[in-house]
Amino acid sequence: MAKGKVTIKQDRCKGCGLCVSVCPKEVLALDKKVINDKGYNPASAVKPEECIGCANCALICPDVVITVERD
Question: What structural domains does the chain harbor?
Fold first, then answer.
């Protein structure tokens, strides 16, 4: 059961993948099927039910497009 909820502003994400690399539960992945207005493949929560609410993804995001709500 998820202990956190990840929200990503996909329209502002530049697809750097830093959030994907620091997630201990592999909740995030770059969405290869979506291209945002900036021309990037944004990050997406592919396994939101696995989120533990650590917020590593939000802390490392250079563009501050990720928020994590903890339950």
Answer: 4-70 (3.30.70.20)
